[in-house]
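Limitations

Structures in this collection are predictions, not experimental determinations, and the ligand pose is part of the prediction. Treat each record accordingly. The example that follows, with flavin-adenine dinucleotide as the small molecule, is included so readers can see exactly what is and is not provided: the inputs are given verbatim, and the output is the predicted complex.
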Amino acid sequence: MKTIFWFRRDRRLQDNQALKFAADTSSSVLPVFVYPAAVTDMSERRRGSIEASVQALARSLPRGLQVLSGEPSVVLKALANQVAAVRIIATKSFDPEGIRQQEQVSSVLEGTGIELVLLGSYYQVEPGTVLKDDGTALRVYTPFFRRWQSFASEKPCSIDIAAVKWETPDSERQFHVAIDTQAEQIKAGEQFALETWRRFKKQRIMDYSENRNRPDFNGTSNLSHALAHGEIHPRTLLADIGNSPGEEVFRKEIAWREFYADVLFHNPHTFEKYYEKRFEQLRYDDPNEFAEKLAAWKTGNTGYPIIDAAMRQLVQTGWMHNRSRMIVASFLVKDLHFEWQIGARFFEHHLTDFDPASNSHGWQWTAGCGTDASPFYRVFNPILQGHKFDPNGDYVRAWIPELAHLTGASVHEPWNDIAGYEQGYAPPILDHAQERDEALRRLEEIKR
Ligand SMILES: Cc1cc2nc3c(=O)[nH]c(=O)nc-3n(C[C@H](O)[C@H](O)[C@H](O)COP(=O)(O)OP(=O)(O)OC[C@H]3O[C@@H](n4cnc5c(N)ncnc54)[C@H](O)[C@@H]3O)c2cc1C
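Predicted complex:
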């Protein structure tokens, strides 16, 4: 049976259930990737990260990869007709955009004799599987985690790639994505993901529970990019860890990713709408009226060193440490009084690990309107957060050259140092204590 294998956010050849099914049941397989239509909404870095991932996949396939661009339903149907394929196989997606795409593909194939087969997922446990006894979805992480563990036993699957009869892609269509890209400099792909995992497991996972909150040094796995692109599957990671304190915490972090995927699956509107609807009523500021303040946040010029370091890290590298994500998100919503979606869309533009569920729900957790969220009245103090999580000031100095001349933790309060503004660093655009009070006043308004 001649099959098209449609690679989506599962760009790897091992531990790929849908690909294994294609390999086991097809007379030949044509591997295809469809480039997203909305690449113009992405930063150059993010576009480059996707292209690097696609190129790595293409290099790992014995006969290369056919790359198309456009709406999957249109280009896949045309391709299937052109090569006389009778089946398209892909990993099943559970987020709103992925579901929309696969439903459209399925609908255009109706009556054509070409079948769409969807199986597997990007998760250890398929979203929608873990339910309460009464059959409803879980809203709180800890009980979700307990139940999720009882479903999370599936082991990685291996595929004999050499035994598959791969079709040779149309040579003109192998790489015809003409975008300005930084892809050549970005390390990506399944092999790189596995190496990153091995290195983390050998060198850092034992200290992960203590170090994962510190943006000033490399204490986390840096695997979010590989997980978002599907260059590694969580099954591979979870099957490879034991029960040491670091490994336990790591398992719980992977489960947060699974929890948010589950929440988004049950509540697809929460990709851009409030999970807790009452927060729609909160008084937010108009980004057009306060455009300068928003621009200061986006460019890392708020005058609060930890915020500015984090935002510059995001724009320059396409990644930001989890602790920093929480601090800058709190600042946008509770100090600047903008809606969380403004920050989420800015993150989506830049993050090379962008994930619709983790991003929308990471934002809603911090903004107090998500499921099992941090309460709104918990307002992060950017100065104290700086001292606590970047105690020597190294993170700030690494990203803010205007503060590189200050020593130790004094970088977190340049206003206290006689030389603090000597190199052109901007003074604070707001008074955190005043804005915290303002946020809490606005919260009172929706409580009445
Ligand atoms: C406002 C905000 C936005 C976020 N947006 C994204 C996003 O778009 N994509 C994304 O992958 N993560 C997102 N996160 C979660 C988290 O910040 C990143 O997963 C983490 O920083 C990635 O670095 P790492 O791989 O080194 O993490 P590690 O600490 O090594 O964690 C291992 C893996 O566990 C998962 N994980 C860890 N923490 C979380 C978490 N809080 N929520 C969900 N999954 C988690 C990730 O897949 C991560 O790769 C967001 C968090 C916040 C607060």
